[in-house]
Amino acid sequence: MHVVLIASGQPYNIFVLQPILIGCQVLARHGVLSNADPFRMRDLVGRAKLTDEYNTKLDGLLKPGSTMKVNLCMKALPKFTCLPNAQGQHNGTIHLLPPEKDVIQSVRAAFDDIQKGKLSDFPTIEWYIHTSIDPSLTDPEGRHSGALFVQWVPYELSGGKTWEQEEAAYVKRLLQICDRFAPGFSDLVQETFVLTPPKIEKHFGVTKGHIHHVDNGFAFADRLPYRTPVRGLYSCSAGTHPAGSVIGCGGHNATMAALEDVKLSKL
Q1: I need a labelling partner for 191 at 20 to 30 A (CA). Which of 9, 66, 77, 185 fits?
Q2: Is it the case that residue 230 has pLDDT exceeding 70?
Q3: How far apart are CA 224 and CA 143, in angstroms?
Q4: Comparing C-alpha atoms, which of 70, 74, 86, 231 is closest to residue 163?
Q5: What is the mean pLDDT of residues 206-213?
Q6: Which SS3 state, helix, strand or coil, does residue 129 take?
């Protein structure tokens, strides 16, 4: 748990309450850059410390997460029907889409299912194999690390179903989809670590399990500004422009804003 304390309208003290850093205090001389999701940041600061306008904007940006990740431990690399021989096909991002003639319509139907709280029979899948790029990530047994990035899934399931009930069967379904493109792949998977939206929220503390913090359905210009109503407190999370995807732009831009303000304050 992290708590941001505010004095004279400025963040000056951060208490870090974690198993390794119980009671540790970090003093901020000029300001604080927060990489927490915007809603978690508000929880840490306190809603009352922010303006009504800011809170209203933030409330309007809240949406549940819609992505799922299945981390994979594989005893061997998959063999794709379309590329059976090694030609670097394991090194990039592998996109699995429905093989129907009208792919766009199939993707739209899958998205519509998610809006109804249903699990799609064939969601869009991005497939990564990390050890093909970095062999040092293999374990002592020489097993490979990979992951399925699944779009989309509901945060809450409809029809009285729960993720606890459906997760194992849905992971099996996803591996079966992989089998269509790489026959026998399911038999290569020895372990999985599954992150549904509720598990992302529980494991990482990201509000509603939304990895982008602010849904990508909102335009770049509509995302959270770097400067908050609290002087010296900046947001640099994926909820700011230009969103996330491990690009670091939000951190760079928020830092530039902070440096500009510090420079102006010294004039």
Answers
A1: 66
A2: yes
A3: 41
A4: 70
A5: 95
A6: strand
Dihedral (CA of 148, 164, 183, 137) sign: positive
CA distance 120 to 67: 12
Q: Among all chains, which residue has been given the structure tokens 């800011």?
A: 54
pLDDT of residue 197 exceeding 60: yes
What contacts 22, CB < 8 A, 6 or more positions away? none
What Rg do the C-alpha atoms of the chain give, in angstroms? 22
- Residue 254 Cα distances to 217, 222, 231, angstroms: 22, 16, 13
63: tokens are 């949406």
The per-residue pLDDT for range 91-138, each reduced to its tens digit, is: 999 999 987 788 999 999 999 999 999 999 999 999 999 999 999 999
Helix (H) or strand (E) holding 52: helix 52-61
pLDDT band at residue 33 under the 50/70/90 scheme: confident
Distances in Å between the alpha carbon of 253 and those of 143, 163, 198, 243, 258?
39, 37, 30, 12, 9
Q: Are 34 and 236 in contact (CB under 8 A)?
A: yes
